[in-house]
Amino acid sequence: KQRDNQKYPLLFEAIGIAPVVAMAVSLKSAIILSFVSFVELLLIECLACLLMKKLKGSVRKMIYAILGLLINIPLFMLFRYLAPNETASAGIFLPLLAVNSLIALHCERFAVKHNFKATALDAVSAGFSYAAVILIVGVVREILGSGTVYSVKLNIPVKLPGLLMPFGGFL
Prior knowledge:
Elements: H1 4-7, H2 9-13, H3 17-23, H4 27-51, H5 57-82, H6 84-90, H7 93-96, H8 101-109, H9 116-146, E1 148-149, E2 152-153
Antiparallel strand pairs: 1-2
C-alpha cells in the first residue's frame, strides 16, 4: 500500500507544482492544464508499465520526456485551435508539461513495479487527483484575482490581481 505522500506528491512533496503555480490562473486554463496532464500521465504510465520495465531508470526517464513531447504536441495544437487565448496565455508552460516531473515520479514509483491494471488505476486516480487540485487552484485564483468564474463576472468587492501572476500561485 502506498503512503499518502506517494499517492499525492503534488500535495505532500510539491512535485509537479510549477505548472499549477504558473498556469492555473483561471478555470479555463486549469481545464486545459488538467486535461493535458491527465492524458500524458495515463498514456505514459501505461506505456512504462507495458514496455519499459527492463530498461535502466536513466533511459526510461529520457523516454518519458520523448513520449510527453509526442503526446503534448497534438494536444497543444488542439487547444491552440479550440482556446487560442488560454493557450497563448499559458506561454511556455503548456509545452513544458511534456517533461513534468510528476509523470516521471509516478512511472518510477509505480508503473515499472506493478501490473497493467494496477498501473492504469493508479494513473487515473493520480490524474483525477492532480486535476482536482489544478481546478481548485484555478477557480480560487480567478475568483479572487479577477472576480470572475469562467469569465462570468461575480459581484466581489475586492480583487487581488496579483493572484493572476505566476507568483500568485504560491499564495
